[in-house]
């Protein structure tokens, strides 16, 4: 856009537009445009409603001012009593948690979760019993007995050689003359 062709009147509704296409239309800021009256209302009723609306809006402003003053006073009292925002937050959270706990939805959820927990516990107990039984069966098997015997043999050789004062272990190949290297740090 060419800056020379722009409308630079800051009060103009055509601000920033080319003046070739639009012309300035004066805007009357002193008179507020009234919307047309609602059908079925007389001018007197409309005026009465507008007066009541103005009164209610004024009361709202007054109430907001009173509320702001009361909140400031409340803050000053809390400050003088040493009450902090954190303490107040804790109290609000505690109160909210209590409200949640006494709600019907929480009670129903808690009951459902409790039942689910009991069923899960029973299922895990059954699985535990089954595993225990299988391990018992496995321990009584010939393979496990053979493995257990081998471990006992190795254990007796290790414990027996230490009781005899020897630190040497017999090799699984039968050559018992090899000793373990000394790895003492000092």
UniProtKB/TrEMBL annotation:
It holds the Pfam family TPD52. Residues 39-73 form a coiled coil. Residues 166-178 have a biased composition (Polar residues). The keyword Coiled coil applies. Residues 155-186 are annotated as: Disordered. The keyword Coiled coil applies. Keywords: Coiled coil. Belongs to the TPD52 family. This is Tumor protein D54 isoform X10. It comes from Galeopterus variegatus (Malayan flying lemur).
């Amino acid at each position: 856009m060419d800056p020379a062709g722009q409308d630079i009147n800051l009060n103009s509704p055509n601000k920033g537009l080319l003046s070739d296409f639009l012309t300035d239309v004066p805007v009357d800021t002193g008179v507020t445009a009234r919307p047309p009256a609602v059908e079925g209302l007389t001018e007197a009723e409309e005026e009465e409603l507008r007066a009541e609306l103005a009164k209610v809006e004024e009361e709202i402003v007054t109430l907001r001012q009173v509320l702001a003053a009361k909140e400031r006073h409340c803050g000053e009292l809390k400050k003088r009593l040493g009450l902090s925002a954190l303490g107040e937050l804790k109290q609000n959270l505690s109160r909210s948690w209590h409200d949640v706990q006494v709600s019907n939805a929480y009670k129903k959820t808690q009951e459902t979760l409790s039942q689910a927990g009991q069923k899960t516990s029973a299922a895990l107990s059954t699985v535990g019993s089954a595993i225990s039984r299988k391990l018992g069966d496995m321990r009584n098997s010939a393979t496990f007995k053979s493995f257990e015997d081998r471990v006992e043999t190795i254990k007796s050789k290790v414990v027996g050689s230490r009781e005899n004062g020897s630190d040497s272990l017999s090799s699984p190949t039968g050559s018992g003359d090899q000793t373990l290297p000394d790895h003492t740090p000092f």
